[in-house]
Amino acid sequence: xxxxxxxxxxxxxxxxxxxxxxxxxAFAEIRASQPLDKAELDExxxxxxxxxxxxxxxxxxxxDVFRNGDKSTFMTNREGNEKVRMLTGGxxxxxxxxxxxxxxxxxxxxxxxxxxxxxxAIRPLEEQIRGIAREFVDYMLSFEGECDFAAxxxxxxxxxxxxxxxxxxxxxxxxxLKLTQELFNNADPELNRARAExxxxxxxxxxWETTMELEAYxxxxxxxxxxxxxxxxxxxxxxxxxxxxxxNHRQLMGYYIIAATAGHDTTSNTTAGAMWxxxxxxxxLRQMQDSPDRINAFVEESIRWEVPVKHFMRSAASDCEVxxxxxxxxxxxMLSYQSGNRDESVWTDPFDFRIDxxxxxxxxxxxxxxxxxxxxxxxxxxxxxxxxxxxxxxxxEMNGKGERTISNFVCGPKHVPIRFTVx
Length: 423
Fold this sequence. Notes:
- The protein is built from 18 helices and 14 strands.
- By secondary structure, the chain is of the alpha+beta class.
- 50% of the residues lie in helices and 13% in strands.
- The protein has one domain: CATH 1.10.630.10.
- Strands 1-2-10-7-3 form a five-stranded mixed β-sheet, sandwiched between helices.
């Protein structure tokens, strides 16, 4: 028995994710009745909906069985899939990045940056990041009691951090923010390239144009860093080799693009979501000020709460079984991190923001060999920002209605209007 058409359409609808309660309710129903079952819609290849925390981990820990690159790694319809393959010469993903490759290629690409983003490797960045955090806290306070925290702080602070780490000049930050929003929010008329509602064909054209603009930018980056190598991440990417050869064009551009876009947008979404949670819960700010040692718990709960990457798709390479369901070779699966991070069997009160959880095994960063490469930097950025802000914030509350981006892939708050007082 397939998941109902209504539920299936809800969990892939970009507009539904802009009203998170709608998607949460749909997945709660799926977890309760059909936690691992197929969705069948005419315009989309049938796909398994993987809604439970345990099943997502089970699939993620078997990368040889459940592959990233055989089909699209995010939800798309049949027509979009065909057009992407035409544009890429047969590949199912517009961008060939770490999240869309498997096996030895993935291991080799991940190894380019991994040694430089371990907790030990990034520790020397702490004071530099703290200086950036203080700059943005001062900027927020300059608004004299009212601001849009998402647009004025959360979009900009992680952007500055990752651009600094990558080696992108400060004057290019606005360009990177614009293209990132176009890439991840293609269904949102406020943020996409056309600033309009798009047909599926127009949406793909828009994504392609944004990708080409990013590639043109990073072509110049490659030339610059191959001529003058440095220790910055973009230089590591530019000069990386697999065997004796530089990364090929699609590997190279995919690496730059995923580092420069996902490297800040996911953290921006989480930071904005955490402030939204704070502004709706006056007691939460008092808890944090009374117990500053709970800062890591606050950060981890904000990651679970916001889940900036809503899903990834996997493809079965062979017949197998998951939770009693027979998965066939070639089957497509939707791993819903949104649902997995609301699993009632894992968390008490999963629909509330709580920093007193004894354990918080959130899977917003993924799990297994494809776990987020930048997870430790993201945690550090958020911890430092909240440490600096909690010292100066006396009260905060919502100052209007918050808004979320229209996207079913990478998304979060785009407007968090707040009113605040300072110590």
